[in-house]
Design goal:
17% of the residues lie in helices and 43% in strands. The chain is α+β, with helices and mostly antiparallel strands. It has one domain (49-175). It is rod-shaped, with a radius of gyration of 36 Å.
Length: 179
Protein backbone atom coordinates (compact mmCIF):
# COMPACT_ATOMS: atom_id res chain seq x y z
CA UNK A 1 0.00 0.00 0.00
CA UNK A 2 2.88 2.25 0.53
CA UNK A 3 3.76 1.86 -3.05
CA UNK A 4 0.27 2.71 -4.13
CA UNK A 5 0.24 5.71 -1.83
CA UNK A 6 3.55 6.92 -3.21
CA UNK A 7 2.32 6.46 -6.77
CA UNK A 8 -0.81 8.44 -5.98
CA UNK A 9 1.21 11.27 -4.38
CA UNK A 10 3.47 11.35 -7.45
CA UNK A 11 0.44 11.59 -9.71
CA UNK A 12 -1.00 14.45 -7.63
CA UNK A 13 2.35 16.24 -7.65
CA UNK A 14 2.72 15.80 -11.42
CA UNK A 15 -0.86 17.06 -11.92
CA UNK A 16 -0.20 20.08 -9.71
CA UNK A 17 3.01 20.89 -11.59
CA UNK A 18 1.21 20.59 -14.93
CA UNK A 19 -1.53 22.93 -13.65
CA UNK A 20 1.09 25.48 -12.52
CA UNK A 21 2.85 25.28 -15.90
CA UNK A 22 -0.50 25.71 -17.69
CA UNK A 23 -1.41 28.75 -15.55
CA UNK A 24 2.02 30.26 -16.15
CA UNK A 25 1.64 29.75 -19.91
CA UNK A 26 -1.76 31.44 -19.94
CA UNK A 27 -0.42 34.31 -17.80
CA UNK A 28 2.59 34.79 -20.06
CA UNK A 29 0.38 34.80 -23.15
CA UNK A 30 -1.88 37.43 -21.57
CA UNK A 31 1.03 39.75 -20.74
CA UNK A 32 3.00 39.11 -23.93
CA UNK A 33 0.37 40.59 -26.25
CA UNK A 34 1.46 43.58 -28.30
CA UNK A 35 0.51 46.87 -26.68
CA UNK A 36 -0.45 49.62 -29.13
CA UNK A 37 -0.76 53.22 -28.01
CA UNK A 38 -2.09 55.82 -30.42
CA UNK A 39 -1.95 59.58 -29.92
CA UNK A 40 -1.68 62.91 -31.66
CA UNK A 41 0.41 65.98 -30.94
CA UNK A 42 0.25 69.40 -32.54
CA UNK A 43 3.09 71.91 -32.43
CA UNK A 44 1.69 75.40 -32.37
CA UNK A 45 4.83 77.40 -31.55
CA UNK A 46 6.19 80.00 -33.97
CA UNK A 47 9.65 81.47 -34.59
CA UNK A 48 9.74 85.12 -35.64
CA UNK A 49 12.80 87.04 -34.40
CA UNK A 50 13.55 90.04 -36.60
CA UNK A 51 15.06 93.52 -36.72
CA UNK A 52 12.07 95.78 -36.12
CA UNK A 53 13.72 99.16 -36.65
CA UNK A 54 16.98 101.07 -37.08
CA UNK A 55 17.05 104.72 -36.08
CA UNK A 56 20.06 106.95 -36.78
CA UNK A 57 21.01 109.18 -33.85
CA UNK A 58 22.43 112.67 -33.87
CA UNK A 59 25.69 112.84 -35.83
CA UNK A 60 28.81 113.97 -33.96
CA UNK A 61 30.93 116.52 -35.84
CA UNK A 62 30.33 116.57 -39.57
CA UNK A 63 29.18 112.94 -39.90
CA UNK A 64 25.96 112.11 -41.73
CA UNK A 65 23.81 109.05 -42.19
CA UNK A 66 23.66 107.71 -45.74
CA UNK A 67 21.48 104.69 -45.03
CA UNK A 68 20.53 102.08 -42.49
CA UNK A 69 18.59 99.26 -44.11
CA UNK A 70 17.15 95.98 -42.93
CA UNK A 71 18.33 93.42 -45.49
CA UNK A 72 16.59 90.40 -43.98
CA UNK A 73 15.00 89.40 -40.67
CA UNK A 74 18.34 89.40 -38.85
CA UNK A 75 20.69 91.31 -41.16
CA UNK A 76 21.16 95.06 -41.63
CA UNK A 77 23.54 97.35 -43.46
CA UNK A 78 24.77 100.73 -42.17
CA UNK A 79 26.42 103.43 -44.26
CA UNK A 80 27.64 106.82 -43.00
CA UNK A 81 29.68 109.69 -44.43
CA UNK A 82 32.48 110.84 -42.14
CA UNK A 83 34.55 113.96 -42.83
CA UNK A 84 36.92 114.61 -39.92
CA UNK A 85 38.65 112.51 -37.27
CA UNK A 86 36.28 112.05 -34.32
CA UNK A 87 33.09 112.22 -36.47
CA UNK A 88 30.59 109.52 -35.60
CA UNK A 89 26.98 108.48 -35.77
CA UNK A 90 25.18 105.98 -33.56
CA UNK A 91 22.27 103.84 -34.73
CA UNK A 92 19.67 102.42 -32.36
CA UNK A 93 18.58 98.92 -33.40
CA UNK A 94 15.44 97.24 -32.04
CA UNK A 95 15.03 93.48 -32.39
CA UNK A 96 11.55 92.07 -31.82
CA UNK A 97 10.39 88.52 -31.12
CA UNK A 98 6.87 88.16 -32.54
CA UNK A 99 7.03 84.39 -32.13
CA UNK A 100 5.96 82.22 -29.23
CA UNK A 101 9.42 80.83 -28.41
CA UNK A 102 11.90 82.83 -26.31
CA UNK A 103 15.16 83.67 -28.10
CA UNK A 104 18.76 84.36 -27.15
CA UNK A 105 21.67 85.58 -29.26
CA UNK A 106 23.69 82.47 -30.13
CA UNK A 107 27.31 82.08 -29.06
CA UNK A 108 29.25 83.82 -31.85
CA UNK A 109 25.85 85.08 -33.02
CA UNK A 110 26.93 88.65 -33.78
CA UNK A 111 29.01 89.24 -36.90
CA UNK A 112 29.98 92.45 -38.63
CA UNK A 113 31.31 92.47 -42.17
CA UNK A 114 33.04 95.67 -43.22
CA UNK A 115 33.51 96.91 -46.76
CA UNK A 116 37.03 97.11 -48.23
CA UNK A 117 37.70 100.84 -47.66
CA UNK A 118 37.80 101.04 -43.89
CA UNK A 119 41.28 102.15 -42.79
CA UNK A 120 39.95 105.18 -40.89
CA UNK A 121 36.44 103.94 -40.10
CA UNK A 122 35.81 102.05 -36.88
CA UNK A 123 32.66 100.25 -35.77
CA UNK A 124 31.48 99.32 -32.32
CA UNK A 125 28.30 98.07 -30.71
CA UNK A 126 26.88 97.98 -27.20
CA UNK A 127 23.83 96.67 -25.42
CA UNK A 128 23.92 93.22 -27.04
CA UNK A 129 26.09 90.25 -26.09
CA UNK A 130 26.41 86.87 -27.80
CA UNK A 131 25.18 84.05 -25.58
CA UNK A 132 23.59 86.48 -23.12
CA UNK A 133 21.10 88.90 -24.73
CA UNK A 134 17.58 87.48 -24.61
CA UNK A 135 14.40 88.47 -26.41
CA UNK A 136 11.21 87.33 -24.72
CA UNK A 137 8.48 85.63 -26.73
CA UNK A 138 5.24 87.34 -27.73
CA UNK A 139 6.54 90.76 -28.85
CA UNK A 140 9.51 91.06 -26.50
CA UNK A 141 12.25 93.42 -27.68
CA UNK A 142 15.96 94.02 -27.26
CA UNK A 143 17.55 97.38 -28.04
CA UNK A 144 21.22 98.02 -28.77
CA UNK A 145 23.43 100.53 -30.56
CA UNK A 146 25.90 100.42 -33.43
CA UNK A 147 28.37 103.31 -33.72
CA UNK A 148 30.33 104.26 -36.85
CA UNK A 149 33.36 106.47 -36.07
CA UNK A 150 36.13 108.23 -37.99
CA UNK A 151 39.16 107.09 -35.99
CA UNK A 152 40.37 110.12 -34.03
CA UNK A 153 43.97 108.84 -34.05
CA UNK A 154 44.26 109.28 -37.83
CA UNK A 155 46.81 111.99 -38.62
CA UNK A 156 46.64 111.95 -42.44
CA UNK A 157 43.46 112.41 -44.43
CA UNK A 158 42.58 109.13 -46.24
CA UNK A 159 41.35 109.17 -49.81
CA UNK A 160 37.74 110.28 -50.28
CA UNK A 161 36.64 106.71 -51.11
CA UNK A 162 37.87 105.53 -47.71
CA UNK A 163 35.55 107.80 -45.74
CA UNK A 164 32.32 106.13 -46.78
CA UNK A 165 31.90 102.44 -46.15
CA UNK A 166 29.27 99.77 -45.67
CA UNK A 167 28.96 97.72 -42.51
CA UNK A 168 26.74 94.64 -42.57
CA UNK A 169 25.55 93.23 -39.24
CA UNK A 170 24.21 89.69 -39.02
CA UNK A 171 22.53 88.34 -35.88
CA UNK A 172 21.92 84.68 -35.14
CA UNK A 173 19.29 83.82 -32.54
CA UNK A 174 18.48 80.41 -31.08
CA UNK A 175 15.74 79.21 -28.77
CA UNK A 176 16.37 80.22 -25.16
CA UNK A 177 16.33 76.93 -23.26
CA UNK A 178 16.51 78.66 -19.85
CA UNK A 179 13.23 80.55 -20.17
Amino acid sequence: MNERHESRNKNILIGALLAVVLIMGVGYAAFAQQLTINGNANITSTWDVHIKSITPGEPVGTASNVSATVDSATQATFKANLVSPGDSITYTVVVENSGTLPAIVAENGITFTEGPNNQAIKYSYSGITAGTTKVAANNGTATFTVTVTYDSSITEQPEESQLSNDLTMTLNFVQDQTA
